[in-house]
Amino acid sequence: MSITTKAIGGGITTVTVDFPPVNALPSAAWFELGDQILAAGKDPATHVVILRAEGRGFNAGVDIKEMQATEGFDALVAANQGCAAAFSAVYDCEVPVVVAVNGFCVGGGIGLVGNADVIVASDDAVFGLPEVDRGALGAATHLARLVPQHMMRTLYYTAQNATAEQLHHFGSVHRVVPRAELDAAAVEVAEKIAAKDPKVIRAAKAAINGIDVQDVKTSYLLEQRYTYELNLAGVADEHRDAFVATGKPKSNTVSEGEGK
Fold first, then answer.
1. Angle at 224 between CA 54 and CA 34, to 5 degrees
2. Which of 56, 201, 246, 249 is 20 to 30 A from 236, comparing alpha carbons?
C-alpha cells in the first residue's frame, strides 16, 4: 500500500495511489496524498501533475472498515479532515493536475476528480457518490463540477453512477480511451501543458482558481456539517455497519401504508 511520486521527464510528475484491493484510503493516506500533490506542484521542475491509480479502480473513497473499527469519532474526524486536505491539494496545486481515472471513481474519488484541471478516463470508468447509502453526505460540491445541476441531484439522491461517456458528453471529461491507453492519453495532454511557459501556466492556474464561481472549500465544509450531524444522531453508524457486514446498503423497506 503506497502513494508514490515520480518525475517521468518533460516537466511531468506522476502521483500514483496503490491501496488494494479497491483504493479505499485510510485517513492517514488522504493527508499523505494531499502532501505529495502539493509538494509536486511546488517543485520548479514540475510543470504538470498526473494523478493516477493502480488496481481495479481509481478511488473507492474512505476506508469504512477503519472507521467502524475505531471507538468514538476520531476516525470520522480524521477521514473528513483528510479528504478536505486532499481535495484542496488538487485545487491548490501550483500547476495543473491531470487525473487519469480507471474503473470506479466513487465517494472521495469524486472530490479529487471534481477539483482537477483535466480529466481523462478509461471507457469502463464510472463516477458516483454512494454517500446516502452510507448514512453520510459530501462531495456534491465536486460532483456539481462534473455534471449539470439536476443530474447531480439525481445521482446524489439515488446513489447511481454516471459513465465516462456521459461525462464526456457533458464536457467535463476530456477524453475517453480503452484502459490500456489511459496512461498514454494522460501523458499526451500533460505534454501539451508542460510545453508551455511554466511561469505562465502557474499564473494561469492561480488566475482560474481566483475567478472560480464556487468556493469549493467552504461548500464542502458545509456538506461535512451534515455528515457530522448524521453521525452524532447514530444514523451513519447503522448504515456503515450494514455495509461492512453485507457489502450492501442498509435496507429501508417501506411498510404497507407508510408514506401515504
1. 35
2. 56
What pTM, to 2 d.p., does this model score?
0.92
Angle at 17 between CA 12 and CA 20, to 5 degrees: 155
Query: 82 in the Ramachandran plot: left (φ > 0), alpha (ψ -120 to 50) or beta?
Result: alpha
Domain coordinates in residue numbering, the chain: 2-180+196-210
Q: Which sign does the torsion angle of CA 51, 54, 55, 60 carry?
A: negative
2-180+196-210 maps to which CATH number?
A: 3.90.226.10
- The grid coordinates listed for 74 are 476520531
Q: What is the 3-state secondary structure of the chain?
A: CEEEEEEEECCEEEEEEECCCCCCECHHHHHHHHHHHHHHHHCCCCCEEEEEECCCCCECCECHHHHHCCCCCHHHHHHHHHHHHHHHHHHHCCCCEEEEECCEEECHHHHHHHCCCEEEEECCCEEECCHHHHCCCCCHHHHCCCCCHHHHHHHHHHCCEEEHHHHHHHCCCCEEECHHHHHHHHHHHHHHHHCCCHHHHHHHHHHHHHCCCCCHHHHHHHHHHHHHHHHHCCHHHHHHHHHHHHCCCCCCCCCCCCCC
